[in-house]
Design brief:
single chain, about 15% helix, 3-stranded antiparallel β-sheet, alpha+beta, about 20% strand, 2 helices
């Protein structure tokens, strides 16, 4: 399976959101296959026991957390349909 390329950033860059170095902040990217990649804090261990009964994760998935501002500022780049 080929890994898709990053097509574009979704929302404001970390620097635009106030990161002083722009390197260690949550981020969202659209990939060439139409899926999305998210950079966030790994909170799998803390949140997995709190998942609703109809949710789960596979061995190759992690639960990552991004700030509210990151997602809200990405909304402008996410199509409604």
């Amino acid at each position: 399976m080929t890994t898709p390329d990053i097509s574009r950033r979704i929302g404001a860059s970390p620097r635009q959101r106030g990161s002083l170095d722009g390197n260690t902040c949550p981020d969202i990217f659209e990939l060439s296959d139409g899926s999305f990649a998210v950079i966030g804090a790994d909170r799998t261990d803390a949140l997995e026991p709190k998942l609703p009964s109809d949710a789960g994760r596979s061995h190759d998935e992690r639960i990552v957390v991004i700030t509210r501002e990151t997602l809200l500022r990405a909304k402008i780049d996410i199509p409604d349909v």
